[in-house]
């Protein structure tokens, strides 16, 4: 039986290496593409028979454009492209003071070559292909003295969105925006005293720096068939740091976990579909607002909610009951939205999304992980995404409001 084949750029180290290992564990064959050919060869050998190494310098756009076809020929086929490779400048110079060659290299590697690989990959893979691009928390906030890094990563988010519109889901393309991740580079900075991990963690609602595996988990989800619901979207995997906007947190030791099956709160077809799809899950009506279960929660908001106060009041009571009972299991609020929703309903959904993000920051110190999801009414394609968001694999996804209606 043929295997699913993936190309991962920058695959020999850090996040890219974790992505390769995770994909292979899920049955993929990987082409480990890296500028360090010797390390890529060693990594491919570690992954096992059938995995290959490709040496490439992505500062050469033509080499980047040729990469998907090289991977297809080396693996025998190609189904997934992960654009992970990227570079920055740590010399502490302002943009006018930067060496022009270095400036151009960052733009070429981080944006021009990614665009070239996306288009070449789409041609090689055809409409059934998948592409996952690595953006960054810097896509959404400027990093001074890092040259054009933030600009190129902002470009990745828009490139992903624009290609999704252009291709109309064939192939589908999405992105992941990592936050503070303990890559080998970061570990070196910690060892040299340039980063204080405890001080950094205080500004992260999840209470820790991320691991490469956190990003690999997100990439693996988006790369699969269930990830198509995120076509054109960028999933932030940052422990809530962007939502926190620099606020400090004092976290208790350890992060609580639970083995209890998911509890789905709500009525209607989506709530029923969620309860049916998740192993062991059970469903109760929204009126049950006084429970203190330790189960992960998915709260489905009625699409026909008559007024702002009603669902928000329910949610306030619901969360208050959980806090009083000491529960710290993850919570996901799910709002349905009609295709031609009235302005009031769209406003309500955005309000609930921000409510969830606010609660995520308020309860971060306790270790509670809270997110929101807005989905098309009657569409159950987001059920696997909801399951992912309350799973341990999404432990570093915090204080997000994800709107898949916009696809």
Automatic annotation (TrEMBL):
Pfam families: adh_short_C2. Transmembrane segments: none annotated. PANTHER family: BLL7886 PROTEIN, SHORT-CHAIN DEHYDROGENASES/REDUCTASES FAMILY MEMBER. This is SDR family oxidoreductase. It comes from Maritimibacter dapengensis. The lineage of its organism: Bacteria, Pseudomonadati, Pseudomonadota, Alphaproteobacteria, Rhodobacterales.
């Amino acid at each position: 039986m043929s295997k699913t084949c993936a190309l991962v750029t920058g695959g020999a180290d850090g996040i890219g290496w974790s992505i390769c290992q995770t994909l292979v564990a899920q049955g993929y064959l990987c082409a480990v593409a890296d500028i360090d050919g010797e390390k890529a060869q060693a990594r491919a050998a570690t992954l096992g028979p059938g995995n290959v190494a490709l040496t490439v310098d992505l500062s050469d756009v033509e080499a980047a454009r040729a990469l998907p076809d090289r991977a297809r020929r080396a693996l025998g086929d190609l189904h997934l492209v992960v654009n992970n490779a990227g570079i920055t400048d740590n010399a502490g110079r302002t943009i006018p003071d930067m060496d022009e060659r270095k400036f151009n290299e960052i733009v070429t590697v981080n944006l021009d070559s990614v665009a070239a690989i996306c288009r070449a990959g789409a041609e090689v893979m055809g409409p059934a292909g998948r592409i996952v691009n690595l953006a960054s928390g810097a896509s959404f906030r400027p990093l001074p003295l890092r040259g054009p890094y933030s600009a190129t990563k902002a470009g990745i988010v828009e490139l992903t969105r624009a290609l999704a519109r252009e291709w109309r889901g064939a192939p589908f393309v999405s992105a992941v925006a990592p936050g503070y991740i303990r890559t080998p580079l970061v570990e070196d900075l910690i060892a040299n005293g340039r980063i204080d991990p405890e001080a950094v963690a205080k500004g992260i609602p999840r209470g820790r720096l991320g691991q490469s595996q956190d990003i690999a988990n997100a990439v693996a989800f988006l790369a699969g068939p269930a990830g198509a619901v995120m076509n054109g979207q960028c999933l932030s995997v940052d422990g809530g740091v962007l939502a926190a906007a620099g606020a400090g947190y004092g976290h208790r030791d350890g992060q609580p976990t639970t083995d209890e099956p998911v509890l789905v709160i709500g009525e209607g077809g989506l709530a029923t579909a969620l309860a049916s799809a998740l192993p062991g899950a059970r469903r109760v009506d929204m009126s049950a607002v006084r429970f203190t279960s330790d189960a992960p929660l998915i709260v489905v908001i009625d699409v026909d909610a008559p007024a702002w106060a009603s669902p928000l009041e329910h949610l306030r009571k619901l969360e208050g009951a959980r806090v009083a009972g000491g529960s710290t299991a993850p919570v996901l609020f799910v709002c349905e939205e009609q295709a031609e929703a009235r302005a009031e309903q769209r406003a309500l959904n955005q309000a609930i999304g921000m409510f969830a993000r606010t609660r995520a920051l308020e309860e971060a110190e306790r270790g509670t992980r809270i997110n929101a999801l807005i989905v098309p009414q009657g569409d159950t394609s987001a059920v696997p995404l909801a399951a992912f968001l309350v799973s341990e694999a999404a432990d570093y996804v915090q204080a997000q409001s994800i709107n898949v209606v916009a696809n």
